[in-house]
Structure formats: structure tokens, C-alpha cells
Amino acid sequence: MENKVRCLFDIDDFSIEEINELISTAEDIISQPQKYQNACAGKRLATLFFEPSTRTRLSFEAAMIDLGGSVIGFSEASSSSTQKGESVTDTIRVVGSFADIIAMRHPKEGAPVAAARKTIIPIINGGDGGHNHPTQTLGDLLTIKKETGRLENLTVGFCGDLTFGRTIHSLVNALGRYKGMNFVFISPAELKIPDYIKEGVLQNYNIPYMETNRIESVITNLDILYMTRVQKERFFNEADYMRLRDYYILDLEKLQFAKKDLIIMHPLPRVNEIAVEVDDDPRAKYFIQVDYGKYMRMALILKLLNIEV
Amino acid sequence: MMRIDKIEEGVVLDHIAAGKAIDIYQSLNLGELGCTVAIITNARSSQMGKKDIIKIEAHRDLDLKALGYLDPGITVNIVQKSKIVDKKNLELPDRITDIIKCKNPRCITSTESNLVNEFVLTDRENGIYRCLYCEAKAER
Predict the structure, then answer these.
(1) Are residues B108 and A130, on separate chains, in Cβ contact within 8 Å?
(2) What pLDDT shows up at residue A80?
(3) Is B101 near chain A, with CB under 8 Å?
């Protein structure tokens, strides 16, 4: 069975025009939410989270509820039939009978692509291992648009775990298609941006970029600083995780050299890579970034269910 | 010079890189065809210096996509009545199915036994294939 309906596995699945349409819809939802409050009445979203996640799952669920729809699902693999040895694809085939659209997270890369081959309803990738996390990217793009006023001519710094940071990979992929982007990758040598991103995005779109391991040397030039956590669950080796965990910590001392209109983003959860003292700085946008994520998920659900308001 | 007989009906895979015929034989499961298969290694070649050749008698149904992935430089000669009646030049296929496995331990194919490995050609110039699921680069 081949899924012919529109899904979202990778931010690349949508053209820039489609992403801009989603941003417009999200901005409209923000300005007049009551217009959308029954848009998905009678529709059901299944949130299938084979890997625990609070933020993304609740964001999807809040998005569907705010659209007047309902939600079913599970929040970890241990409460699903995979615990009994059921394959992901079998689980998806079953759930496809109960829902109109699925948002899923799975620790294995490419799981949503495999899932979509076993159902005829839209699948949204809510994160597949260290690979992609396109709905985070949609929220990030809306954050950038709303907080800087533009989606072009930006110097964007990505800091932290650039090897396993799926939010980084998806965002680089999306921003790379907008005009006038410059990227600065700040990471230890062990956590550099992967070659497939360099080949597939940076070289493909001729995007100027530099790599460094010192945040202090580049922070003055940045319009956006996107921080990430070094994620324990991506490491096979505890010693490597412990060694790299505290490599970068953003604090007010480092920020004194940054632009006044810099925006600081983070996919959250934050551990200690951004000092709490930064939270009150007007440049810190990582909490409002969560709100924007929900609005973009609302716009996405409407698009994939072909609902026009 | 050693002499290898012509075949009457079948396929001759010519211009195989020297030393690679055994890999081709194994990858295409030629041992399971049940017909006569001759492997010639290190044959003299004006183009290549040395080359390998595989002759398969009385069988013409080969997976040319797989062969194109394994070595697009191979020439496939179709033989009928001891004469070459068709020559097929191979090219890298857009997609290969169930020929190689994804080596990425984080890929969904590493745990879902019912999934068939599929790779997509993402860079024709450099012959790079990536896993349909996790996008990991295929290792040759």
C-alpha cells in the first residue's frame, strides 16, 4: 500500500510557497482564533509517541483541541502494543482506522516514512531519532518571521549539538531556501554539522557558512542564535556525553557582545546551556517560540486535512 | 593464452573491473540460477588493462538495475546462436530495492524486519545513494 495523501516527513516536503502559506494561516489564527475554533469539529488526531516527549505531543494535542477536534494516542512505547512486539507499521495500520490524521514520534530514523506506507491518512513527523523534526522547524520559522520581521538576509548561528540535533538539520534545510542567509555553526569537533547537510543543503543552495568552536568569536555578527542541548539519548557512550554536555553555556557575559536586536532561540527542553539569568533578557525568545509552534501545527493540520476556513 | 569457449545462448557481462566478478556473482545470486556460469578474472583488455568477464549460459533475465548500481561500467551482451544480438550499456538506477542494507544502526530498517531496504540516487555525478528512510549514505 502506498500512501497517496500529503504527509510531512521532512521540511523539504513543502515548497517555500507552501511554508509561507502556513505562516500566513498561523498569523491569521493568532489574530482571530475564534474563526478557527470549530474548524476540525468531528476530526480526530492520533498522537503516537513511541519516544517520550512532553512539549511536542502537548503542542499537537492543544493545536487539535483549539481547532475543535479530538485527540487519541499514547505517550510512550511502553503503553502501546510495541511493548508486546508489534511492529511500528502494524501499529500505524491499526490506528489509521481510528483517526483522520497521525502525529508520531519514534526513536528510529525514517519511521514516519515507513509508517506512511501502511495507512491512507496523513502522517506528521513529530521527530524521528536524530534525523528530522519538521514541525519544530515550522514553529521556528514563524518565530523568526514574527520576532525579526523577515525571513531573508539573516546571519544565523547554530550552537551546540549539530550532529544529532534534528531541529538544527531541519531548520538549516528550510532557511537555506530563503534569500540572503549566512550560517555560522558553533560546535565542538565531535558534534559538527553532518556531511549530508553540507552536501545536500549548503553546497546545493550555495549558502555561505563557517564553522567554529568558539561562540565568543562570532556572537557580534549574529541576528539569530539558535542554541541546542547535547542530548544524552543520542549517545551510545556515557563518557562522551559527560565530556561534551557542558561545552557551551550562554550567559549574560557572552551576550554583552551581541546585537541589541539578536533573537535567542532554543527548541527546549533546556538543561544548562542557557543560564537562567538570560530568560529575562528581551532577546530571549525560546518560551514564546513554543506558542508559535502550536499555531504552526494548527495551520499544518488544516492543510493536511484540506480544511479551508 | 587460455581459451574460454563462446556461449550459444545467454548473457556475457563484459568490462567488469578486475577482481570484482566474484562480488557481482554473489550480489546477483548467480549461483542460484542453476545454469552454467563462467567467471573469468584478469582478462587482458585494451581499454582497461585487465578486466573480469562473466558468461551466463541459457539465461537472459538479469536485474539490470542492481547491476547498474554495482558497476555502471559493465557492458551486457545478449547472445543468441553464438552471436551478440544486443548490447546494453548500464546506468545508475534512480532507485534500488533489496540489494543493499542500510548500515545506520538508528535507521527504522534495523528493527522493522518487514521493511525492504530501498535506496534513492541523490547525486548522479558522484553515484551517491541514500536510504529512503533515514537518508544515510549507502556504503559500497
Answers:
(1) no
(2) 64
(3) no
